[in-house]
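Batch manifest, entry 17 of 40.
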Amino acid sequence: MTHIQRTLVVLKPDSVGRSVVGEIISRFERAGLHIVGMKMVRPDKDFLYHHYETLGKMISRRGQKAFDVTLEMMSKGPMIAIVLEGVEIVEYVRKLVGTTEPKAAAPGTIRGDYAHMSFAYGDKQNIGVPNLIHASGDVEEAEAEIKHRFKKDELFDYDPMHKLYTR
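Output type: structure tokens
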């Protein structure tokens, strides 16, 4: 098993719309994580369905209403898809991002610092919860999500100048 992993991060339309993309990306870079792919996209509903249901099983986990609201919110604007690489990066990125519900995210995490809404409020208002970012949940999910969002020739293998994790 290799300790060098890749993971998918998606800066959702709310982070693009709030113009906090640079701040969020800089947090990953300051942590020494390596960007190996990045693009701005506006996927259609079929693409989002595949991401959230075929891969993420959102309907069975959170229900049809939450799924529909999420697809509506994710269709409101462009997003930025990023593939990061690093040592045991999947788990580390999840820590940097914070819990899915912004209200519960710890201060110092991306969601804890830039978002605050609860699922209960979103449900009551029948709106998606703007939680800024998606990060793959585990190694297998990361591999499937990266394959769904990026072609092989859109990802790069190169040595970072500082070589933090290799000799």
